[in-house]
Specification:
The protein is mainly alpha-helical. It has one domain. The chain contains 4 helices and 2 strands; from the N terminus they run H-E-H-E-H-H. Strand 1, helix 2 and strand 2 form a beta-alpha-beta unit. The radius of gyration is 15 Å and the shape is elongated. The two termini are 23 Å apart.
């Protein structure tokens, strides 16, 4: 089981779209490398590889599924369609900031 993260190097009271976007990319790359490591292990059956993601895991899994076809089955639960929506929902203090600018900045990672 892999635990994903969202708030990397800042407090929940700040919004730095570049840090957030870079964090999403970094986390997906970590999952991608994890698949490489897993498949390099003896006894792992590549044709039976699956991914189960909940919440952020589902969101990361949806991106991973679009770039890596080695995983045969994805089960994605309780994800949100956009990282920006999830972030803004759980940190209401963001209401004082440029919400549309933040959403636009996060659009590259959905």
């Amino acid at each position: 089981m892999i635990q994903g993260v969202f708030s990397w190097s800042r407090s929940p009271s700040t919004t730095d779209v570049e840090v957030d976007r870079e964090g999403v990319v970094r986390q997906v790359l970590d999952f991608w490398r994890g698949i490489d490591v897993l498949l390099a292990q003896p006894g792992v059956e590549a044709e039976r590889l699956g991914f189960v993601g909940h919440d952020f895991g589902a969101m990361y899994g949806s991106i991973l599924g679009g770039i890596d076809q080695r995983v045969k089955t994805y089960i994605l639960m309780a994800g949100t369609g956009r990282f920006a929506n999830w972030f803004l929902k759980y940190w209401p203090s963001q209401g004082k900031r440029d919400l549309e600018g933040y959403k636009a900045g996060m659009a590259a990672v959905v």
